[in-house]
Structures are given as structure tokens and as C-alpha cells.
Design a protein that fits this description.
Blueprint: H1 3-15, E1 19-22, H2 25-32, E2 44-48, E3 54-58, H3 62-67, E4 73-77, H4 83-93, E5 100-103, H5 110-119, E6 124-127, H6 129-137, H7 141-164, H8 171-184, E7 195-198, E8 218-224, E9 227-228, E10 231-232, E11 235-241, H9 246-265, H10 272-285, E12 297-299, E13 306-310, E14 323-326, E15 329-332, E16 336-339, E17 342-346, E18 351-353, E19 363-364
Parallel strand pairs: 1-5, 3-4, 5-6, 11-19
Antiparallel strand pairs: 1-2, 2-3, 7-8, 8-11, 9-10, 12-13, 14-17, 15-16, 17-18
Helix pairs in contact: 7-8, 9-10
Keywords: Dipeptidase, Hydrolase, Manganese, Metal-binding, Protease
GO molecular function: aminopeptidase activity; metal ion binding; metalloexopeptidase activity; proline dipeptidase activity
Protein name: X-Pro dipeptidase
Amino acid sequence: MNTRLEKFMHWLQEQDVEAAFLTSTPNVFYMTNFHCEPHERLLGLFVFQEQEPILICPKMEENQARNAGWTHEIIGFTDTDRPWDMIAKILKDRSIKANAVAIEKEHLNVERYEALTELFPNATFHSAEEKVRELRLIKDEKELSILREAAHMADYAVGIGVEAIKENRSELEVLAIIEHELKKKGIHKMSFDTMVLTGANSALPHGVPGANKMKRGDFVLFDLGVIIDGYCSDITRTVAFGDISEEQTRIYNTVLSGQLQAIEACKPGVTLGAIDRAARSVIADAGYGDFFPHRLGHGLGISVHEYPDVKEGNESPLKEGMVFTIEPGIYVPNVGGVRIEDDIYITKDGTEILTKFPKELQFVK
């Protein structure tokens, strides 16, 4: 039994909850080391107080689950099976009943919830999210090593993107060059859809790359990340293509100052809300508060966006082992946008910045 499962089983015992059913790909991966994208098919993990856990997955994925190190029971179903009937039989054979079941309330759909109520007709259902978030919040040394590697590859990818900037080359062309070079390095999947945004598009926090052409005098914003061994990185850098205006320079330097101030404030015990305020105050004092419309950052790990939110009002304290992003931005229509993002690991007395691509304003000639 792995340590993560043991901790979760201990929590079930403490809460007097007889069973838990996890269904999201990230949480199943966290508990089993088995990554599966089931699409419309069922993926689930039953965990009990003392009995052996049960993994439910498509039969065609069984070998991959074993290769990932899962040694416990698997219910593998074909496309003609009804997995819920197979689950019911196993539960009956094991004499498993439950009056309290923990589920992922934010993930489980109504159809599957109804199927669970048939399996456990007398049960009350409780949230498993908070406990799993707590477990995933603090990264161990193995996780940190993977996150360092993923951050290093994100740095490499931004470098490729900067080198690919050329007059009249489109956002999508630059994006394709980045991802092609990453494939050659063995990266099979990005953390999210890569963003390469220039000109007016750079002022859209979640803009969509397209046929927009690179031209001198504009910002070029890169927001990307890679997945390595199931863990994500996430970096944003903004560069100037040719000479830019005084206002564009002021915007860039304001964002950088805000980000550096937030990073400087990071240490165990400081609240997440205070980190947000550290960056936001710099941007507001420069007159751009209304142009910073999003939280300062988010947790990072198996999911590219996970707990915690680095935002005003979150008074949870920083703890050693947490990993999250710090990514202030200013987005001014008809001028352009700047975002600078790093992946931050909280140490016992401060931070380790995992992403290391230079942040001082770069000019691409």
C-alpha cells in the first residue's frame, strides 16, 4: 500500500466514512500512479477504511495500470459491459456496505451519482475534495524533482519562441515551431493550449493564437507549459519586438516590479491573500489597477490549475512544500498586454523559483 493511500484510508477512519469513490483523472493518478483519459468511459477508485482498494477502468487500460505499479484489484470492463453491475458484484462478494461515502462532488456527474446511490442506498455522501487537496498541496522530493524538470523545459520552450519571432510570421507559426522543437525533446503533451499572442491579442489574458502577424513595436506574449511524468509547468514571458513606446515600457516595468515584490513576500506563514496584495498594490499605485483583472496565481502540480488560489481574501498561510504560480499582468486595449509568470516552491525560509528564463525586458531586433 502506498503512503498516499494509507493517509487517505486513515482519514476515512478518522471521519467514520466507510468508503470513498474518486473519479477525476488527476486524483486517481495521485493515488495510483496510473494516468488514464477515459473520455466517456468510467474511471474510478474505491478506497475503504481497511479493505483492499479497487481500481475501475476500461479493460484495454488494465496493462497500463499494472505497468504503472498498481498491485491491487482492478475491475476492467469492455464496451459491452455495464461496469456498475461488475462493481455491485465485487462489493457483494466482499460484503462491503457503507452508511457514509466520500465522493468528488465537483467532478461526479448526476448519472454516476445515481448509480452510486443504488450501490449504497442507505449512505450519506460527503466531500472528498478537501482532504485530497490537502494531500496534494505539499509536494514531496520526487514531485519537486519532476516539477523542476518540467519548469526547465518550459524555459527552453520560451527561448525557442523568442528566437522564432520574425516580421510577418504569424502567432500560429511561432507556436508550431515551439511545439515541434519540444516534440523532438520528447515532450508529448502541453499543460494547456500554448499561447503566443502579439499586438492587440496580447491584451487578452486568455487570447487565442491565430493568423495575427508579428510586427515591430508590439509585445509578444508567451504562456505555455509542459507535462513531464504527469506533472505540469506553467510560464509566461513577454518580450518587445523592436522598439516600443514609453507607455509599453512603463507597463512592463510595473508588472515586473509587482511580481518581484510578491515573490519577495513569500515565506511560510504569510497568507496567500497578502501575496496577491503585494503585487496588486504596485500595479494599482502605478495607475493600472483596473487593467489587472485576475488573481495573482494558482496551485501547480498534477493539474496546471489546482489548489490553492493566490488571490485577495484567501487567508490560508503559505507552507513549506507548496508550489504555485505568481503571474501579475496588465492588459491595456490598443496598447498591449504584459504578463510575467513563474513557478514558485516554498522552502522552509523563502522560495525556490523553478522557472528561470530571464525576466528583464528583452528586445527582439
